[in-house]
């Protein structure tokens, strides 16, 4: 307990970032070694053992002492794991874990710097690109490959040159061709007449016509891009929970309450034995939803072994 | 494991359907009299199975399944618990989601399920989703967080859902399925056992070990699906033989998958071929990692393909004993997956860099052929007695 209170005292200065980072890291490293949060766990250890019914006594291969009591798969009793903690303790736990996440991210950043330095020096035969953390930006325009800053510049260049080309064509080339060579020059009326379309169309004012054409083009382009975007966001979602991260709890059918299962207390009267009472569903603790074990509540479809980026054949 | 399980949960060639479909028929390699094996099975259930081969142990499971089917017919009316099943809308939505997941991850298999009756289709989807979720525990993005304790908890959830207390909506779909069809829990438990095994192993010393592994990941699927597919009422074949054939089909599918994905698995550092047979053929792990097709490799692959075809033949003997409505999808998947072996041969046994792929046309052509073969019903009494040696 003393270790734990020391830990919570450490965590508060850290959250106000009075200590400078290296010291904070050292403190964290040492406190990890002592696994102070274990005390919080050890008091709740019995519920772990009851719900686990584990037959194997082997420790987990990751070797992280802090995590050895934690199990990634949820079961009917797992929400009770932290039941014996007091409210203040829970808040301290949450805060200290948040701090840890923050510091771990910083560690990852520094490790990456080293990794980049070292791999630039060494010769990497495979030349693997670490693409797992930050995925490529998929393009919103259908049929275009992944975008990066470089391809974005290419896109700018291509689009602007197209626009310039069309403007030059429409403004200079076409009238010149008509005047000098007599090519083209079909009037709108003749065109409508040739196409056997209703004559009213030829009475359209050219400004209205060009505005309409441009507007139709822009609106349909935007529509296609948005549809493609939604499609791609859909692909990035976990298919099991549809991106919500949660699945409906089966015990309470997603309502949060289920019938009380206390045994019947018979009383002397012959009236109805039991009034149906509801209690908070023990599976989901009243939430009506439980963790999706595939995406671990992230809602995202992470890179997996069957990801097309690393599957060579598809 | 990745490549191998790929077919079970994401079978491009309709493998899971194939193994999901029980086939009746003869026995596996070891020919033993049924009576003797039954006695042996009962005595060895008590004794410790030290010197028995994997095939014998697996056969024991098959016998138990068949026996349980007979028992369960008496206990069918036992209430399966309705806590999670009282809301039919939620259940239907769960089944629909199962179908979506199946369509997303295993397109050919999904198309195969469309050939089944609607009730069976939903049941097969529910089983598929459970198998896939179990596979993703050790193969998916979160595999690094999976500990033996996590698998224990997953097994606890399985026990709960078989007792009618499903945890989430996909468990509820499977719970409903097992309440409607006489599916036993043992194959599911064995599949989890296979996951545990795969966490530890990446090499297989002999075919016996490989057979056990194939049973765990694919044979179990066959056993799970026989109750759903149903045995034809006019069939005279024994229940054991149908389960055996289902098992054989599962093994055949898994072997095909292994043979197709040798290169892919090697890239992940795994070799799913028996080490002693490799040595016998004069090959080593380095040859596989190097990925060059030599004559030694060709002759080794020829033998492996021959063995896989033998399992397919065993399986074929039992398809005819299935329910009439289930025969077509089973035959379709069997034929489709068998064609993968032909494709490997057509690739000159180069499964290192080329994927043995059955083209769409060939797949479509197999459908009417399968339909034709599905018209053949269960064997007559005499033939059944003759084949039951």
TrEMBL record, chain A:
One of the record's GO cellular component terms: chloroplast membrane
Parts of the chain that traverse the membrane: 155-174, 207-227
Entry keyword set: Membrane, Transmembrane, Transmembrane helix
PANTHER family per the UniProt record, alphabetical: PLASTID TRANSCRIPTIONALLY ACTIVE PROTEIN (PTHR15852), PROTEIN ORANGE-LIKE, CHLOROPLASTIC (PTHR15852:SF8)
Identification of the protein by name: Protein ORANGE-LIKE, chloroplastic
Organism in which the protein naturally occurs: Punica granatum (Pomegranate)
Gene name tied to this protein: LOC116196111
From TrEMBL, chain B:
EC number(s) from the headed UniProt entry: 2.5.1.32
TM stretches of this protein: 210-232
An annotated GO BP: carotenoid biosynthetic process
Gene3D superfamilies: Farnesyl Diphosphate Synthase
Keywords, in A-Z order: Carotenoid biosynthesis, Isoprene biosynthesis, Membrane, Transferase, Transmembrane, Transmembrane helix
EC category name: transferase
Pathway assigned in UniProt: Carotenoid biosynthesis; phytoene biosynthesis; all-trans-phytoene from geranylgeranyl diphosphate: step 1/1
CDD domains: Trans_IPPS_HH
Superkingdom of origin organism: Eukaryota
Sample GO molecular function, one term: geranylgeranyl diphosphate synthase activity
GO annotations of cellular component type: plastid
Reactions this protein catalyses: 2 (2E,6E,10E)-geranylgeranyl diphosphate = 15-cis-phytoene + 2 diphosphate
Family, per entry: Belongs to the phytoene/squalene synthase family.
Protein name, UniProt field: 15-cis-phytoene synthase
The organism of origin for this protein: Punica granatum (Pomegranate)
Species classification: Eukaryota, Viridiplantae, Streptophyta, Embryophyta, Tracheophyta
